[in-house]
Amino acid sequence: MKKRFLPLMIVLLTFMGGFITGTLYSNTQKTKTVATSAEAAHSTKIPGVKKEPQLKKQEAKVLIGYVQDFRKPEDIDYKNLTHVIFSFAHPNSDGSLIMNGDHAVKNLRAVVANAQKHDTKVMLAIGGWYHINGGESYDYFKAAISNSESRKRLVQELVSFTEKENLDGVDIDFEHPRSSEDARYLAYFAKELSEQLKPNGKELSIAVNAKVHSVTGTEIHSVIFEPSMFKYFDHVNLMAYDGQWDGEYNAANLSPYSYSANIVAYWTALFDKHGFSREKLVLGVPLYAQPEDPSIKQVSYEALINHNPANSGKDQVKMNGTTYHYNGHSTLKKKTSLALSQQLGGMMLWEAGLDAKGNHSATALIAGELKKQEDTRYYTRK
User: What domains can be seen in the chain, in order of their start residue?
Assistant: First the structure.
């Protein structure tokens, strides 16, 4: 009996051994396949979940506010400004730099501290119309930049001051180059200052005369710039106001929309011709009202609103026995649209310390218009 079943037993055992071995091998391969699939899910060759396509956002527009050194630092609208330009430092003929006393320096430091809470940049303006030692700043400034040694000193003092006071840059307010020689010295100064500021991540801006006559709309040739120098600047702030002095005094020519349109046309054409980005150009607006009677002082935008909040909707009002001309909300909106439609870099205020508080703030209005129109372009462009 054993001999009869022995071959059969051998066949059965062989079959069962092969079956078990095959089953184990098959399970092992399945395990390996699962592991390989899991690894493949993390491979860069296998696309993950597709993200929604993002539109490229345009560079944010600037809203620059000049602030005079006697203003209360806590009154400045840092939230709506991208830049505060503290005004002014004064150049001496020998290239030394002076501030308007310790109080000005104290205010500057408070401005810097407050601005940092809102990621707002603070720059120092040098020049202006009047000099702290008397007379126009022009004569002191020209003497300082027309000599290589005094120019070098002024550059060094400005760079040192910006570093010491933790500033974001310098603004040049040389009012205004009146000859080709002046223009050449200003270009030298801009170049040398730029070469010292830019490697340290600082900005350089300049305030420029409108260069357009408010009455005739023609170019003003008594102010001369060397166009090549504009390559050194991050912002070129167009002083598109004070047109009342062109020809016979006329307060209505302070800064009407048509005047700003002519100024923008002139500067964009100039920049296009020389291959400079229009983004450098910043359109300035006045936050003060000009009286028809020149013997009466200008008044601030804040004074207009305090007199009657409805004045925000006008461009002229009768007060103090005279008529004042200014830019109300509607005109400020139109000018902001003009700047954006012509691809300018933003808007500038002279000066932020003259603005009204609360719902009638011109600063808040312009900031809102810049943001609204930027958002519109962001969502409509492909």
Answer: 62-380 (3.20.20.80)
